[in-house]
Design goal:
single chain; 608 residues; alpha/beta; six-stranded antiparallel sheet; 14 helices; globular
Length: 608
């Protein structure tokens, strides 16, 4: 049960050698999963030992699933993309579960071995190297851990099993024979049991100490209770003193082991319980997907996202990790394109219009003090449904299936512009003291929404029209004087603490009392493009490299004429010919798939 590495006869053979080189062969003459031990194994040589964790109030967390982020599904190629995340302004990476789960193709919420790193994404040292590299770039790493339950492959379940009823036995020191809440999957841990509490402590200590992670996002944390609410989901979220005491013990234990480590709960319980946990220093997921999506689709009536504010909840600490998207919610752009408002002035179902409306999200989400989170590729307007099936249809049964990896989105000007708006707002959220103030005010119920930040260093007013009609309104300011539009550099003089505005649909403003350098949002090349951490041959870039589903080639060029490229094998045989496009700064071509018949190997791109 406490193995740090296991061999799985049913699934290991499907792990490519490039992902996990020299994987031990499964021993003959036995069956089932076996543990691997290597006494005296060389320790990983950590390079970045002085990392300082960011202030939790200033966290910009990027939730990432290795399988769906890079085509190779490997830690090594996530590491190649850290420059992209750094330019985006991310200072915390939240990895979906990476401990051993059943099978190789999963979200990871079906855990079987809580101390072993799953081999489907790479070696243990690959994971450590990713964490080490993140720390070198000022990025904290949080692991998503699943301690509400374990699946049947877990020895903890098999050791005490009631085969007649196909459930944990009544004498199990770890599991409830019957779950205590309706959302349980697998086998429900009894968190009041001393054995389970020792296991949880051991799991928390292992990843903090051995892998030097910076904290955890605890999945389904509301399930850590022995209060039976089966058949009454509403009662599950009621204040539970025993659950509060348990989480205080977990937090105290973590902070004793690793000062300032992050305790992040997917709790989603009643506010009175979340307030106690938040005021204790924990961070709690704040799901604002519905409200933000109503706004981006152009339906402002039910689009108030005031619950992203800890003050609106009556909390004393900024502990709401608010988000508009997570792994578990429908993608904003998908609903924009499928269900967005349409009238004679605006058609949200148009791709470019939908992308422009997405810019409202970072401007407002990142203007609210407190930790924030975004889901992978949301910064590029990812528009495939959470329920997309591998064959392209949409079905709820495909929810956890693999999704297309679309790095080519970054070559689309309108998507790149959205990325830069996210980057600009993330940098403000991290670096400007005003964005961590406790003196702020939200008026976000109507079509024109406003946020005011009051701080001795700088006052800030965010305003925008979330409607699909032209709207007139009065913006309130903390004081009179000159304010400056962050995105354009324009100035306005405020008298009587107000200005009158007429805003077209989707238009937003960010006014600051101190003039800031406007962000470079031009669609040409700028420093935000310099993230490609890939092998370079002269000025030619190929990414991702290695490639699974497709690849992009580009190089700086002032020549606007199309250029011809060849894809050859190592013997020089031409497999494909490609013609580039010019975007004003680069020649580039994106290939969505390899030519038919190309097998895994080494191939060469030959430029003009």
């Amino acid at each position: 049960p406490f193995a740090l590495k296991v061999l799985d006869p049913a699934n290991d053979r499907f792990i490519p050698a490039a992902t996990y080189p020299n994987l031990l062969p499964y021993p003959s003459g036995t069956s089932g999963i076996v543990s691997v031990m290597q006494p005296g194994a060389p320790a990983y040589a950590w390079q970045n030992t002085g990392f300082q964790r960011p202030d939790p109030r200033k966290l910009v967390t990027y939730e990432l699933h290795v399988r769906d982020f890079v085509g190779s599904r490997r830690y090594k190629h996530v590491m190649d993309s850290l420059g992209y995340l750094q330019s985006l302004g991310v200072n915390c990476l939240s990895l979906m579960p990476v401990n051993e789960f059943e099978g190789n193709d999963s979200w990871g919420y079906n855990p079987s071995f809580h101390l072993a790193a799953d081999k489907a994404y790479g070696t243990e040292n690959d994971l450590k190297a990713l964490i080490d590299s993140c720390h070198g770039r000022g990025i904290a790493v949080v692991l998503d851990v699943v301690m509400n339950h374990a699946f049947g492959q877990s020895p903890l379940a098999q050791l005490w099993w009631d085969a007649a009823n196909n459930r944990p036995a009544a004498n199990s020191p770890y599991f409830n024979p019957v779950p205590k809440h309706d959302f349980n999957v697998g086998n429900d841990f009894n968190h009041e049991s001393p054995a389970t509490q020792r296991l949880l402590h051991r799991v928390v200590r292992h990843w903090l100490m051995e892998y030097r992670v910076d904290g955890y996002r605890f999945d389904l944390s509301k399930g850590f209770t022995q209060t039976n609410t089966l058949g009454n989901t509403g009662a599950w979220g009621n204040y539970d003193a025993a659950r509060v005491a348990l989480w205080r013990r977990v937090a105290d234990s973590m902070w004793a082991m690793s000062t300032n480590s992050y305790v992040i709960l997917e709790h989603l319980a009643n506010n009175d319980e979340e307030k106690v946990l938040g005021d204790y220093g924990m961070l709690l997921w704040g799901n604002l997907n519905y409200a933000f999506n109503e706004g981006t689709m152009g339906f402002p009536t039910n689009s108030s996202f005031s619950w992203a504010s800890h003050k609106a909840r009556g909390w004393n600490k900024a502990g709401v990790m608010a988000y508009a998207e997570s792994h578990d919610e429908e993608r904003l752009m998908y609903k924009n394109l499928q269900f967005g408002a349409q009238n004679s002035l605006v058609n949200v179902r148009n791709l470019n219009t939908a992308l422009k409306r997405q810019e409202l999200v970072p401007v407002f989400l990142m203007s609210i003090p407190g930790p924030k989170m975004l889901w992978q590729f949301g910064e590029l307007g990812y528009d495939f449904s959470i329920n997309r099936c591998p064959n392209g249809t949409v079905n709820a049964n495909c929810r956890t299936d693999a999704k297309p990896v679309r790095w080519d989105y970054f070559t689309t000007p309108e998507r790149k512009y959205l990325y830069r708006v996210w980057s600009a707002m993330n940098q403000l959220h991290k670096n400007e003291p005003a964005f961590a103030t406790d003196s702020f005010f939200l008026a976000v119920a109507g079509g024109i929404k406003q946020i005011r930040l009051v701080h001795p260093d700088m006052h800030v007013v965010a305003a925008g029209n979330w409607d699909v009609a032209v709207r007139q309104g009065i913006l309130l300011f903390p004081d009179n004087g000159w304010y400056y539009d962050y995105f354009t550099g324009d100035s306005v003089q405020v008298t009587n603490f107000t200005i009158n505005v007429i805003l077209d649909p989707g238009v937003y403003k960010l006014y600051t009392s101190r003039r800031l350098s406007p962000p470079n949002l031009a669609l040409g090349h700028n420093e935000a493009d310099d993230w490609w951490e890939t092998p370079r041959y002269g000025d030619l870039e190929v990414y991702p490299n290695p490639a699974i589903e497709g690849f992009t080639v580009r190089w700086p060029s002032n020549n606007p004429e199309p250029q011809s490229l060849q894809l050859t094998d190592v013997q020089g045989r031409v497999l494909d010919r490609m013609e580039t496009q010019h975007d004003g700064h680069y020649q580039w071509v994106h290939c969505t798939s390899w030519p038919a018949g190309v097998s895994p190997g080494v191939y060469i791109i030959r430029g003009p």
